[in-house]
Each structure stands twice: as structure tokens, then as C-alpha cells.
Amino acid sequence: MDLVSNHGYDDLAFALEKLFGCTGIGVVALKDGEKCEYVTIYEDKDGDWMLAGDVPWQMFIESCKRLRVMKRSDATGLGLCSLED
After folding, report:
1. Would you give the distance in Å from CA 13 to the centre of its chain?
2. Domains of the chain by start residue, with CATH
3. Of 77, 71, 78, whose CA–CA distance to 33 is shortest?
4. Residues with Cβ < 8 Å from 16, sequence gap 6 or more?
5. Measuring CA to CA, which residue among 2, 1, 3 is closest to residue 58?
6. What Cα–Cα distance (Å) separates residue 42 from each residue in 29, 62, 71?
7. pTM of the prediction?
8. Is 51 helix (H, G, I), strand (E, B) or coil?
9. What are phi and psi of 48, to 5 degrees?
10. Which of 18-22, 26-30, 66-70 has the largest mean confidence?
């Protein structure tokens, strides 16, 4: 996915929903992920996995090497955020 072709996290969220043909990855998931079934994470230049939306957009597109969309239940061991209900 060409991140530069997106104009921010909102565009990225909608592109991911369209790509995977499902809901729950969109803007709400990035801004209020604790209420969504999926989380979007990325691997930065240092090899650390981070929650998409935690850094300014420009910093994100400069440091993102890989994106991953995963079920919240599968992300609990990553320590990304408080994932308990």
C-alpha cells in the first residue's frame, strides 16, 4: 500500500476497510480502538510494533515499514494499549 497516496489516518482507515472488505478497521478503530474488533499496527524503522494513529501522520509515513491488521484478541500480548474489555 502506498501510504503517501493517503492524506491522513482517515484515508488509510477507509482504504484498509475497502481492501479487506470489512468494517471495524475504519476511523473509529484508529481513534477509539478499545471499542473495535480489529487494531491496525505497524512496524517502524527500529522493528518495534506500534499502534497506528499514535504519532503524527508525516512521522508515521516516514517510519512505517509494514502494516498489520489483526483481531484485538490476537493483539493482547503485544502491549500496544489496554486491550482488556
Report:
1. 8
2. 3-72 (3.10.20.90)
3. 71
4. 25, 26, 40, 67, 69
5. 3
6. 14, 12, 14
7. 0.73
8. strand
9. -90, 145
10. 66-70
pLDDT digits (tens, 9 = 90+) for 28-44: 455 555 566 778 889 99
The DSSP bridge pattern shows strands 49-51 and 38-43 to be antiparallel
Residue 83 — φ and ψ, nearest 5°? -105, 5
Is residue 38 within 8 A of residue 24, CB to CB? The reply is: yes
SS3 36: coil
Give φ, ψ of 71 to 5 degrees.
-65, 140
Q: List the grid coordinates of 55.
A: 504519532
Cβ atoms 52, 12 nearer than 8 A: yes
Three-class SS of 47-75 = CCEEECCCCCHHHHHHHCCEEEEEEHHHC
Residue identified by cell 471499542 is 35
Residue 21 Cα to chain centre, angstroms: 16
